[in-house]
Amino acid sequence: MARYQLTLSYDGTDFFGSQRQVNPRTVQGELEDALRKLGWTGRSILISGRTDTGVHATGQVVSFDLDWSHTDSDLIRALNASLPADMAVRNARVVDEKFHPRFDATSRRYKYRLFCQPLRDPIRERFAWRVWPELNVDDLAYSAKLFLGTHDFSAFGSPTTPRGTTVRTVIKAEWTRAERDEWQFEVQADAFLYRMVRRLVFVQVAVAQGKLSAEIIARSLAEQVPAGKRSGLSSGLAPAHGLTLVEVTYNESIGQ
After folding, report:
1. What is the distance between the alpha carbons of residues 12 and 241, in angstroms, rounded to a whole number?
2. Which of the residues are catalytic?
3. Residues 144/175, Cβ–Cβ less than 8 Å
4. What pLDDT, on the 0 to 100 scale, is given for residue 56?
5. Domain map (residue ranges) of the chain
6. In whole angstroms, how far apart are CA 42 and each of 35, 45, 82, 211, 217?
7. CATH number of the domain at 2-104, please?
8. What is the rounded distance in angstroms from the CA atom of residue 213 to the CA atom of residue 65?
9. Can you list the residues of the chain whose pLDDT is less than 70?
């Protein structure tokens, strides 16, 4: 028996999130079904963090204990043969028996894609948010820099546990132009609040469209925002389909 660490990739469009639920189709449920075909008898796999309904991943990390007498490559092939077409195992390795993909993580990195067009584009909109009117590039860059560092992000998300802290440290937050009309927001932090990334994107788009002042963002980060109050921020969220969990990082002695 050994503890395995897997990196998963999935198209979140037809999943009701990553965590197992009673009836809806989830990433965890599909993986556990595939593992049972290999003799896995555990109660639940461990996941680095939840992704909402419609959110994608190229770097989701899970772990489990399995009595497997073949190679890591064989495990990847065996699981992918049983998994549905919208998810796949990218790599597998044996790790320390105490490894936990959530609690041992040192950072998580997300990307959010959007494009600016007045008319809908069904193909692109499967993985990117269509926004209009166009965005002010300088306002995007300025608002992203405001999130860098350690702040109380209570205005931008909910704690992941009832008594959890809302303080997070963001080490990367930047926009890059992928195509003429497409932009990507990359953000990396020690951890994220519930729906935090989607809220950060929504607020920045509002600033770049002239609907919101960047000073409101700065004020919300400087002061802890009481529950139910947003210091002038609207309560919207960027759509889930533009968001992808790209990477979860660990110390080399613990995990990948």
Report:
1. 8
2. 52
3. yes
4. 98
5. 2-104, 107-248
6. 9, 7, 18, 50, 45
7. 3.30.70.580
8. 50
9. 224-234, 253-256
